[in-house]
């Protein structure tokens, strides 16, 4: 742990704040796309916090492990976003189909 | 590098998933072979663990904290074996249940990917690896949820996706806290770390994320729709296996991290009690068979958390065994029950509970299977579910925590009530609407669910060896 905590004090709480903004959005937003974006915000906040953990007293090089973790996290989140977007599009087209007269029986009797 | 059982259990399903995706025509064959090969690897691993206790493999020869190590002990092998065996039987059931070519094409890659993620969770020794694996599970599970392609399924799948990703991100934030506090992410580092406020916060974040993923009341909102609208084999995998991964991580973390205090444990038990009561009421009100079965999963998850909390903080070193028994019992019985429910729906043409009747064209064997699985879920002797509930109540009584006994008994009575709704329907002469026709009452497709349901009951007779097996390598603190 570094003696001077100022980067932790700035970036750490910022990361947590960004995460909380995302959390509120993910729980409260109605729009599907908005909820995906809110989840992305959460992942950025968590990444921020991890990056903070890489900081070391300036002459020393930063710890590479958190960087590797954040990159992995970004890759995971990209795939998750892609799946979520694909589902949203599919749902939209299914809803458009259902709005036309011939309703599918599976869609209608599921409460 | 010579192949070892743990790497095989991880990489066989992964390469199988890729092969099944690249060669869609041979997907079923590749899938079955890969699942069989994974099961053999797990059997090999089980033999080794039984002979030598816990084992560790450093992937690529890099030891932690720099590299990634895999570790197997009694509990993880028990989970691997349950996953493999249930998965193999569900795969056999899927051969018949998935009639649609498109569904069959995508089922196998997704299921093998899911198997990779589950095996990865049970073998992981560091929490970042666990994060990646639960994301792999989440993506594959969402794919399986929406496999049927109906609007209800896609809607439920999207809800599931939001909940699952949010749970994983809460876990990731917890991982960040751990790295800030301890500077390490492997289990050995967690054990060595000094208890601090930061670590407690990390544990809290990770536990909330896991509760969301395992659907403990009141974070269960996504589960019933997702599990009820998926195709039968997918429901069996989701309900029997997927929720167990987060439960397993929960059990592991609570042994490695600073112990949660009495209030937290009581709160977890109270949430479990809420799940048992609320899930029971919803199961009583459910209109469709699969919805009833899905709500019963909510109840059983609650029961597992009550087992965890049954004797408070001092009893934790024993309580995890009751929870583990219930996890295994539920996995086997629920997979069988969902497959049977799918069979009933296919044969009868609907799954509306109020319209079930004793017509001549009923799928007798599937209904019998449903009843057998219900015996284990209700907890009648000699099923594994009975042993799990027994050890829950025994521990609670020994510790003087009678309230958990009361909740468990109420939950048991409620489960008798809601499963009886279904049994009564199976036996109703007065409702007969179906045309009388020739029907054998059984089909080859009934073999897989029937085997699962029988296993759920007969495993209860083997409870003592199972219990001594899951204790192999305990306490987990023995990690190098």
Gist of the model:
With 111 residues, chain A is mainly alpha-helical. Chain A is built from four helices and no strands. Chain A has a single domain, classed as Helix Hairpins (Orthogonal Bundle).
Query: What string gives the helices and strands of chain A in order?
Result: HHHH
Specify the number of helices of chain A.
Answer: 4
CATH names the topology of chain A as Helix Hairpins
CATH class of chain A: Mainly Alpha
Low-confidence stretches of chain B: none
How many β-strands of chain B, per DSSP? 2
Distance between the termini of chain A: 54 Å
Q: Please list the strands of the largest sheet of chain B in the order they lie side by side.
A: 1-2
Describe this structure in words.
- The complex is a heterodimer of chains A (111) and B (480).
- By secondary structure, chain A is an all-alpha fold.
- Chain A is 77% helix and 0% strand.
- Chain A has four helices and no strands.
- Chain A has helices spanning 6-28, 32-52, 64-99, 105-109.
- Chain A is elongated and about 65 Å long.
- By secondary structure, chain B is mainly α.
- Chain B has a domain at 259-475.
- Chain B contains 18 helices and two strands.
- Chain B has helices spanning 5-22, 27-52, 74-97, 101-123, 127-145, 151-182, 187-192, 197-214, 223-229, 232-256, 262-285, 289-309, 316-348, 364-378, 384-398, 402-426, 447-458, 463-470; strands at residues 55-58, 69-72.
- Chain B has a two-stranded antiparallel ribbon with strand order 1-2.
- In chain B, 62% of the residues are buried.
- The chains are: A mainly alpha (111), B mainly alpha (480).
- Chains A and B meet through helix 1, helix 2 and helix 3 of A and helix 5 and helix 6 of B.
Could you list some keywords that capture this structure?
heterodimer; A: 111 residues; 77% helix; disordered C terminus; B: 480 residues; mainly alpha; two-stranded antiparallel ribbon; 73% helix; globular
């Amino acid at each position: 742990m570094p003696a001077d905590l100022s980067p932790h004090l700035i970036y750490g709480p910022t990361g947590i704040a960004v995460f909380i903004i995302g959390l509120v959005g993910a729980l409260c937003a109605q729009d599907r796309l908005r909820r995906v974006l809110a989840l992305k915000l959460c992942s950025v906040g968590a990444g921020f916090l991890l990056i903070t953990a890489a900081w070391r007293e300036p002459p020393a090089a930063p710890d590479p492990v958190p960087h590797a973790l954040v990159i992995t996290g970004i890759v995971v989140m990209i795939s998750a976003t892609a799946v979520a977007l694909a589902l949203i599009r599919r749902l939209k087209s299914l809803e458009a189909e259902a709005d036309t007269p011939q309703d599918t029986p599976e869609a209608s009797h599921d409460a | 590098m010579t192949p070892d059982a743990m790497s095989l259990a991880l990489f066989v399903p992964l390469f199988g998933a890729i092969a099944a995706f690249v060669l869609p025509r041979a997907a079923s064959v590749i899938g079955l072979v890969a699942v069989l090969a994974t099961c053999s690897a797990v059997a090999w691993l089980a033999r080794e663990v039984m002979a030598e206790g816990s084992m560790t493999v450093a992937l690529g020869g890099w030891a932690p904290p720099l590299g990634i190590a895999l570790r197997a002990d009694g509990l993880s092998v028990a989970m691997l074996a349950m996953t493999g065996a249930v998965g193999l039987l569900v795969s056999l059931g899927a051969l018949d249940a998935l009639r649609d070519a498109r569904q069959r094409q995508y089922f196998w890659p997704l299921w093998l990917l899911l198997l990779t993620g589950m095996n990865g969770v049970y073998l992981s020794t560091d929490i970042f690896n666990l994060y990646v694996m639960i994301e792999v599970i989440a993506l594959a599970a969402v794919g399986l949820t929406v496999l049927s392609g109906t609007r209800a399924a896609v809607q439920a799948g999207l809800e599931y996706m939001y909940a699952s990703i949010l749970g994983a991100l809460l876990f990731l934030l917890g991982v960040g806290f751990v790295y800030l506090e301890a500077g390490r992410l492997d289990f050995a580092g967690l054990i060595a770390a000094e208890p601090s406020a930061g670590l407690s916060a990390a544990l809290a974040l990770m536990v909330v994320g896991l509760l969301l993923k395992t659907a403990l009341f009141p974070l269960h909102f996504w589960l019933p729709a997702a599990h009820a609208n998926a195709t039968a084999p997918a429901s069996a995998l989701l309900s029997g296996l997927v929720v167990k991964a987060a439960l397993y991580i929960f059990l592991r973390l609570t042994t490695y991290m600073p112990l949660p205090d009495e209030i937290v444990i009581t709160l977890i038990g109270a949430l479990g009690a809420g799940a048992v009561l609320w899930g029971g009421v919803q199961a009583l009100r459910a209109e469709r068979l699969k919805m009833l079965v899905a709500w019963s999963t909510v109840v059983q998850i609650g029961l597992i958390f009550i087992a965890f909390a049954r004797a408070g903080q001092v009893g934790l070193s024993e309580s995890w065994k009751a929870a583990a028994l219930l996890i295994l019992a539920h996995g086997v019985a629920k997979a069988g029950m969902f497959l049977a429910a799918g069979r009933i729906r296919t044969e009868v043409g609907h799954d509306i509970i109020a319209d079930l009747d004793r017509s001549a064209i009923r799928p007798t064997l599937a209904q019998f299977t449903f009843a057998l699985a219900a015996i284990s879920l209700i907890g009648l002797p000699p099923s594994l579910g009975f042993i799990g509930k027994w050890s829950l109540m025994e521990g609670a009584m020994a510790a003087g925590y009678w309230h958990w006994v009361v909740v468990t008994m109420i939950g048991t009575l409620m489960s008798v009530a809601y499963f009886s709704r279904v049994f009564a329907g199976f036996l109703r002469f007065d409702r007969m609407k179906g045309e009388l026709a020739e029907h054998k009452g059984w089909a080859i497709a009934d073999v897989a669910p029937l085997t699962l349901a029988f296993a759920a009951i007969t495993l209860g007779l083997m409870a003592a060896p199972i219990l001594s097996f899951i204790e192999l390598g305990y306490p987990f603190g023995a990690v190098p």
